[in-house]
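#lab-general

N.A. 3:47 PM
ok so I finally got the sequence cleaned up, no stray characters, all 476 residues accounted for. can someone with queue access submit it? mine expired

B.Y. 3:52 PM
send it over

N.A. 3:53 PM
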Amino acid sequence: MQGMYFLGGGMVLLSITGAGIYASSKVKSAEDFSTGGRRANSLLVAGTLMGTMVGGAATIGTAQVAFRFGLSGWWFCLGAGIGFLLLTSQLGRRLYESATETIPQVLAKTYGNQISPIVAVFTSFGIYFSFVANTLAFVALCSSILHTSPMHAAILETLLVLAYVLFGGVWGTGLAGIIKVVFVYAALLYCGVVAYIRVGGVSGLGTAFSFHPWFSLFGRGYGVDLAAGFSMLLGVLSTQTYFQAIASARNFKAAKQGALISAVVTPLVGIGAVVVGLYMRSAFPATPSAEVLPAFALLFLPPMLAGAVVATLLVAVIGCSAGLALGMSTMFTLDIYRQHLRPAASQKELLLVQRASLLAVCLGTLLFVNGSAGSLILDWSFLSMGLRGCTVLFPLLAAMFLPGWVTPKAGCAAAFFGPMTSFVWHVVCPRGIDPLYPGLLASLATLVVVSVLAKSRIVEILWRATHKDAPSAGRP
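B.Y. 4:20 PM
back already:
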């Protein structure tokens, strides 16, 4: 029977490995590594978007929250789908037509180069929390299958992430992402159908659970769950990884189609995980919540299929982590290293730095593993998305639609005070209002107030220059 587990898992892993080997032949420069040379079709764009989003949080994390709270676990996938849909709008077009490789580069066109390191640092911290979430999902996966310690599981994930992306960049995450999403979608759909049948369909679910909180999208409270969905939407619009996917397209039509595919498929992925979580809650309530999805596969699927599903979850976690690490390394390489440390760096040097920074990101995550094991995976993901949104959202919207109204100092101040307010609020009031809201309010208020003050100062200077002999009382 063990041989059938390994056979099913091996077939999935070989498929992904083949895509990665092919991908490595496409990388000739740092631009190829970060944006694929702007040659991606709509399927490759969708593969990159979903290959990064549909990872440990969308699968294992969603089943975990559904096991504990019900349908509100769907917010991760639902909010991400809405965010992808907004990338098909005029905002997505303007981002694509900016012809840049990173979000800090987009902002620098309006606010100057001084905003680049601020945004790169805060959004990288945000992405890093998502990386931590995926590491926790991988730890749960290994615990249910191999019964390894959290640290050993995290070390194994580091090695697999490096092998997955180090020589492929966005080509690796995109091509492998297409295959991975097909496997993940099929696996979760099948698991969801099996769980639905085993629980007794609608009547069985109705007998096992009350409507609230189990079948409410707001089972954890309106404030908590609205913030969860909103943070996902903002995170998609504010994250380097998803911007890279759009920027890699051969034209905006391909980018739009890829984002639309992702907007439709991503929410559907979460449905299967939610049903599995509910069934495991009704039948095996003592199961560790982070392990319910792999445990279900091992208990109720044929051995070969169970091995394939577990390998698919493994690839989902690794692929998502790889995409997140790629986004962080790209911002560090282009917005900090090249912009402020080595402006004359060659393409070969930049490629080396980007790969070295990938290694640093992976190794740094090991520091979080022991102290965070057992926490809700999606809590880290929602915190991550919210922090990115507080950093980027309002400065980015203003840069895209009101570039003549905002000022460089206002953009820099908003990009700093937004995430700082969110982080401080999270530490000081961990059980109060979600930190997303004060962070966004601080960002918007700073952007408006500093811009208005700067504009009024400019008006005063111009008035004085043209009315040198007028009394001060006559100023506007």
